[in-house]
Amino acid sequence: MSVFDKRLLTASSAASLLLCSLSGPAQSQTAAPAANGTTALPDIEVTAPKRTQQPRRPRTRVVTNKRRETPPAAPPPTQAQVVAGQNDRLDEVRRSLVAPTGAGSYEMSQQFLESLPQGTNTTLDKALLQAPGVSQDSAASGDLHVRNEHANLQYRINGIMLPDGVGAFGQIIDTGIVGSMALITGAMPAQYGLRTAAVLDIQTKADAFNNSGSVGVYGGSHGTITTSLEYGGTVGQTQYFVSGRYFGSNLGIENPTPAYNAIHDNTSQEKGFLYLSTVLDPQSRLTFMSGVSNGNYEIPNNPGQPPGFTAFGMSNFDSAQLNERQTEFNQFNVLAYQHSGDGYDYQISYFNRYSQLHFQPDTIGDLIFNGVASDVYRQSMINGIQEDTSYRIGFAHTLKFGFSVSTEDSLVNNGSVVLPTDDTGAQTDDPPRSVFDSSAKTGYLFGSYLEDEWRITNQLTLNAGLRFDQMWQYIDANQLSPRVNLTWKPADGTTFHAGYSRNFTPPEQVLAAPTNLALVQASTAQPQVSQNDPVQPERSNVFDAGVTQKIYAIPGLELGVDAYYKTATDLLDDGQFGAAYVLTAFNYAKGINQGVELTATYNNGNLHLYGNLAWARQVATDVVSNQYLFDPDELAFIANNYVYTDHAQILTASLGGSYLWNGTKFSADMIYGSGLRDGFANTSTVSPYTQVNLGVSHDFNIVSPTKPTTLRLDVVNLFDTVYQIRDGSGIGVFAPQYGPRRGVYFGISQKL
Predict the structure, then answer these.
(1) pLDDT at 66
(2) How far is C-alpha 186 from the chain's CA centre?
(3) What percent of the chain has pLDDT over 70?
(4) Cα gap 62→735, rounded to integer Å
(5) Residue 274, SS3?
(6) Do 120 and 719 meet the contact criterion of CB atoms below 8 Å apart?
(7) Tally of CB atoms within 10 A around 156
(8) Distances (CA, A) of 110 to 157, 206, 288, 357, 497
(9) Nearest to 390 by CA among 339, 350, 337, 349
(10) Distance (Å, rounded) from C-alpha 471 to C-alpha 441?
(11) CA-CA distance, 223 to 700, in Å (whole number)?
(12) In the predicted model, is pLDDT for residue 655 greater than 80?
């Protein structure tokens, strides 16, 4: 065999071996002769290698009697939780029913109120001083002003308007019942009528129905003592909440002197509130609210006043010994039915309010100093119905309409003791005489509105509507008022609002009661001006625009600016024109009100800060009703010049915040005012002032970890700044009033 044949045979054998390995194990076969006569090699059996595996560990079977447990199912909601959920949904529907689309709104939560120095012991008017554009005033003049307006503030509880009362300084609403409140300003949508300077929309506590409450005692300087109790729970389908407060102090009304202690200024006040809400079915509920307040006040004295008249043979009297008093009583009740269907929501309410005021003079003292001693009694009973409906038409449109109608029975009595005078006004004789002037009236108010809330895009909403108001009181008048508002949210965190509203504001019936001047002729009560035109309703145009912006570069910071401009015909105003702490209304022929407000809030964890600054200007001209209230020279000057209203303050600011550290809450706030008007025809101002308040509180788990005991310490007017709110001069200002001197207060409250 040649070398070539050997190589060929070797290659053939290798190929056969490769095919066998690829085809798997071959069967053993007998060699057969090849075709060329040679003997073929026998087939080679090739076995594929077995894959090596790691030896397995023997598995040990564990036998146990413990069964495998499945995660426990969540417990079914309690009846109270179901009812709370239904009420939360209906609360949300109610808020959207009367939403102030296009108007400005400054929110104050329950947590915000609790974080103020004095917490919920702060009265409602003092809490509102922390809102933009709100300035303080004396109790006799209405307590506060929003955007330089006098009164004209509307109060609503859960969307239901409370009618006017007759009190000069009694407050029926306690901050303890407030879950949240919003001060709504600017151009109001059509559902808001009558009082339109601002709307204070109060939502009652939503977390007060878990069978818990609190009791507390608080007091300190100026003989202050206040006790409070509140409790709420759920029984079946009904939620309830009840609260009560007593307040006593020897600084009931602002001190007319800069002294630390006022003379003859004790007060005792009681307040109560009841809330009941029953879910009738998942779509409807019935709500009842009732509030009551009773206040007794001593009118503070200003010593050293010179006597001006002789009465009962006396021509000398120590003004520090005067004994004037005033009592006020207010009560309201509301019964509301709310239903929320598929795109159709409404609420209808019955309301009433009873108010009573009685000023008791010091007959001899008032005659000697003022020449007149007036016993003033005012009473008002109001009953009415309010209805608001919202109907959604597709995605873009929500139609809103409603009405309110009320009747008021008012009584104004003025029993005065006067001294006789001659034609020059000089006293002619000593023995006084009595006169009695009384005015009783049944009046009616009616208002209705229709508006369309048009959601043009997801970012742009237009609200356009018409409102009609009619009054039948001492005069009859009406007005059809167009309203238009726009809200635009071009980006997340940015909200623009703008609007125009035509407003119609009737005077409060008791403040517009006429006076019979013939009864006081030839007496010390005879005015120098005999003109006495009736009080008219105010008609105005309001333009407002503003923007709020979240600053994402500084998380938690939000800034806002709002500007407004108002023109008015028969601008309403009122003031205290005698010793009695009661108000009397009058009109300016024309008025202009304008201003700009800046706001800032910052929230970061346990730190909460806020600040507000407002510039405002309100001027008016020509007194056209109740002209007898003015001196002839002042009346003539106002007829030919625009003058500042007495409550116009150019600059108003507030600043505050709170910080929670290791369970201790520190809080501070500040108010600043450039001064209200004073002097002849309000041509000057009182001095600017700043008041700083501090507070600290801590929760202790003495009774239970879930029912803390809270101790607090507060300082009002930290730097004991002596400042005047009024100096006794200016239009409708009878006596001076000073801000509170430094006060230190302690409190303890226990969760129940």
Answers:
(1) 52
(2) 15
(3) 89
(4) 94
(5) strand
(6) no
(7) 20
(8) 15, 10, 21, 31, 26
(9) 339
(10) 13
(11) 27
(12) yes
